[in-house]
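Hello Y.,

Per our agreement to keep a running log of every chain we model this quarter, I'm adding this entry. I've kept the format consistent with earlier entries: sequence first, then predicted structure.
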Amino acid sequence: MAFRALASGLGAGRNAWLIPLDVTFKTIGLRYGWLKALFDNAPAGPLAMTGRLRAERAAWRAVRRVPAYREYLSAQGVAVDRLVPAGILERLPETDKRSYVDPYPLAERCLDGRIPFVGTGRPAPPITGSAPRPSAISPTATSASSPAIALDPNRS
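Predicted structure for the entry above:
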């Protein structure tokens, strides 16, 4: 338990430093010229260090929050509960489509095992049964919220 608290504390400390940097990148990133100027003029060492810290943070989050990744790592012999953010990249095996993507369902490869609705941050409801068959579009719709659609039978 103490090890887990130490690892979480280390991760939180690194996040405290990276959050202002993330906000800066997102703000500067709105203008391509500004972002390009930053990368053209910033020293390579700090940029490389920042990139590594951000990659370690992403890997640490995946280990903690992606069910399929935790299972994959355990199957590869990685002691998941003993990982810490610092130096995590050297301890993780590479993944590929055959060994990671194909065996695990999509939802299990998402954060917290759920597929979020695009743009809402809310998880999609669980999929049960089969999808309903699509119904024909009525060419006589008159509502302003669903305008009429002219169907051309000669168009493919």
